[in-house]
């Protein structure tokens, strides 16, 4: 009896390690080419996320893991995101001007289109492509937003760490996500590849 349990546990561990390694390989490959079963491999990485991240933290770079996972999830979510009808556009407050005059509410920063930062353009683009636009400063804001909005999709602008974090969170709310990574990390003066963001929005508007 104990022998069978031991064999079963060893088998589970071996299979799990093999699947994690394969999923990591596929996530890295997704940066350059299409990957079959992207959703399956993304779920594996989500399930083992904490132990995988601890290994990357010790032996590599966690940003690399986040970037791979976001790329894989974008590939897995593309067809589902295309079918969404009520989409949010969620952007981080670290992109706004340091002297931003906009007020903050429980739903985020209320952009007044003052022209001091790129959010003036992004707000107009959101209206043009039929997104409901929010500038958020943390996950607590997102919880309030999804209670307010009956959204089924969310286009996310953020660093890869935050993209992966919010993707995992909104997955539990049955909201399909797609991420556009920032060009740099940080708490302020972050930037987005604006042309790439518009390209993504145009692709999903067709």
Explain what you see.
- The chain is of the alpha/beta class and 206 residues long.
- It has two domains: 1-83, no CATH class; 84-206, 3-Layer(aba) Sandwich (Rossmann fold).
- Helix content is 55%, strand content 14%.
- The protein has eight helices and six strands.
- It has helices at 2-29, 38-47, 49-59, 62-82, 119-128, 139-148, 160-171, 194-205, and strands at 87-92, 104-105, 108-109, 131-136, 153-158, 176-181.
- The protein has a four-stranded parallel beta sheet with strand order 4-1-5-6, sandwiched between helices. Strands 2-3 form a two-stranded antiparallel ribbon.
- The termini are far apart.
What would you say about this model in short?
By secondary structure, this protein is of the alpha/beta class. Helix content is 55%, strand content 14%. The radius of gyration is 19 Å and the shape is elongated.
Looking at the structure, the CATH topology of the largest domain is: Rossmann fold
Instruction: Tell me the strand order in the biggest sheet.
Output: 4-1-5-6
Structural class: alpha/beta
Number of helices: 8
Mean pLDDT score, rounded? 93
């Amino acid at each position: 009896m104990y022998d069978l349990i031991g064999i079963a546990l060893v088998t589970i561990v071996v299979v799990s390690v093999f699947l994690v390694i394969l999923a990591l390989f596929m996530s890295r490959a997704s940066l350059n080419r299409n990957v079959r079963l992207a959703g399956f491999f993304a779920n594996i990485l989500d399930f083992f996320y904490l132990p995988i991240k601890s290994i990357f933290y010790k032996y590599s770079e966690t940003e690399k893991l986040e970037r791979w996972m976001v790329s894989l999830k974008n590939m897995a979510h593309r067809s589902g995101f295309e079918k969404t009808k009520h989409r949010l556009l969620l952007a981080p407050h670290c992109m706004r001007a340091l002297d931003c005059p906009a007020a903050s509410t429980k739903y985020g920063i209320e952009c007044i289109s003052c022209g001091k930062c790129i959010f003036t353009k992004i707000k107009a683009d959101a209206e043009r492509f039929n997104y409901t636009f929010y500038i958020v400063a943390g996950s607590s804001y997102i919880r309030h937003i999804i209670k307010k909005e009956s959204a089924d999709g969310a286009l996310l602008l953020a660093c890869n760490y935050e993209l992966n974090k919010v993707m995992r969170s909104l997955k539990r709310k049955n909201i399909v996500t797609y991420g556009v990574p920032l060009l740099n990390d940080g708490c302020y003066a972050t930037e987005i590849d604006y042309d790439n963001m518009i390209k993504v929005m145009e692709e999903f508007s067709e």
